[in-house]
Amino acid sequence: MKLRRGKIPSQSPGPRFVQLCTTQTFQLGKARDKSSNMRTIVASVCVLGAALLACKSESSGSITVNGAAFDIAQCRSGEANTPPFSGVAFLNSAGDQVRFVGNPQGGFRLFHFTKGQGIGTLVGEDCGSLTVNKTNTKINNVSNIEGTVSANCTGSGFTVIANVNYSKCH
Fold first, then answer.
1. Coil, helix or strand for 33?
2. Which region holds residue 98: left if phi is over 0, alpha if psi is between -120 and 50, else beta?
3. How many helices (H) and strands (E) does the chain have?
4. How far apart are CA 68 and CA 65, in angstroms?
5. What is the CA radius of gyration of the chain?
6. Which one of 47, 72, 98, 114 has the largest count of C-beta atoms within 10 Å of its C-beta?
7. What are the backbone dihedrals phi and psi of residue 154, each rounded to the nearest 5 degrees, phi first?
8. 3-class state of residue 85 by DSSP
9. Are 101 and 85 in contact (CB under 8 A)?
């Protein structure tokens, strides 16, 4: 059975037709330049890697909780939280979190969360300064934020001291 472009065979195509199409597809794929395929794959991986590195949050400075260093593994925009809030959260590698929640009237509230804790512990309110600036970049409909935190808060059994510059938090 000979197939022509744009023509549908009058008989049921059956397995022979499927085999013919599969063979042609395989042969067409085989005929492509292998080095061209490899260049496309390498370029795609490089673009993806660059995008992931560009999206990594950046934080410089320090946070201490009860005198112990809080190693900042990442920062997150409050928009990414459920429910969302205006502010920034810093997470360490253990999953603990220090969250600065901006008040609409100005100032902030500082909460400490241990890993798995659903409701944070209020450590202090308006005990320093917080700046949060939205950038033009959005990831998953969440604006990247940048800014600074300077705080010295004590309450509920915690003392949190923070001096941090952050960017690319989403």
1. coil
2. beta
3. 2, 10
4. 5
5. 27
6. 98
7. -135, 135
8. coil
9. yes
| Amino acid making up residue 121 | T
CB 157 within 8 A of CB 120: no
Per-state percent for the chain, helix, strand, coil, to nearest 5:
25, 45, 30
Alpha-helical (H) ranges within the chain are 14-31, 34-55
145: nearest Cα among 102, 110, 95, 94: 102
Tokens 């934080």 sit on residue: 59
Please state, in angstroms and rounded to a whole number, the distance separating the CA atoms of residues 113 and 90.
Answer: 10
What are the domain boundaries of the chain? Answer: 14-54, 57-169
Can you tell me the distance from the alpha carbon of 2 to that of 11, in angstroms, rounded to the nearest whole number? 12
Predicted confidence (pLDDT) per residue in 64-117, tens digit? 999 999 999 999 999 999 899 999 999 999 999 999 999 988 899 999 999 999
